[in-house]
Write a structure and sequence with these properties.
CATH superfamily of the largest domain: NAD(P)-binding Rossmann-like Domain
Number of helices: 10
Helix content: 25-40%
Strand order of the largest sheet: 7-6-5-8-9-10
Structural class: alpha/beta
Distance between the termini: 19 Å
CATH architecture of the largest domain: 3-Layer(aba) Sandwich
Length: 246
Amino acid sequence: MSTYPSPPDADRFEVFVDGLRGGAIRGLNVTIPFKEVALSIADTVSERARKAAAANLLTFELDGRVTADNTDGVGLLGALAAQAPGFDPTAGPVAVLGAGGAARGAVAALLTAGTPQVRVINRTLAKAEAVAGAVGAGAVACPLDAADQALQGVTAVINATSAGLSGQPGLNVPLDVTPETAVVMDMVYKPLETPFLSEARRLGRRTVDGLEMLIRQAAPSFETFYGAVAPSEPDVRALALKALGQ
């Protein structure tokens, strides 16, 4: 039986955060489905959190203020660099699947890195349009039923949804229409090899897993919490794989 506490209900997240004001703890990382509300309740917002319209890192100041940041973009670009060496975010369009806080962070990071166009693909077009509108020029919304067109010519496809998470069905996306050189990434890390990544491997595409992104987005959080650069030892990925039973 797990000894980890359960997360707060979505409608009580603000109450949970308010209870930590004043420096009871230095900070915490935020995951789905709380990233957008985390941004809305912060007193100070970093530029990258503002661009992403979502926060995955909250810091608590002694005077009661809460600061919001978004390190998902750091993790995303770091994971691509580590597991897809030579990938150039400026080389062409990238497709992002999803329209939640994780997707917003990915789109904002890619545009900041110089990606000429990011195609936000989502089942509900209005939500994709909201993400594209929030991050600004360079992002375009595409409905999921037109994914076969939106995926053509992309340099990378990034799953920013929870599809494929343990116990959930995977994505039904036509990866076969992507160029053979395209990189396929899944933010889900449990299981490490999602059906989405398995299909990409079957097609001969290079893949990037969600665990690498998780580890790399945690490094700036560590620096915020402890005021020091994250150490290179121990091997965090090996420890994480062991914890996940991989």
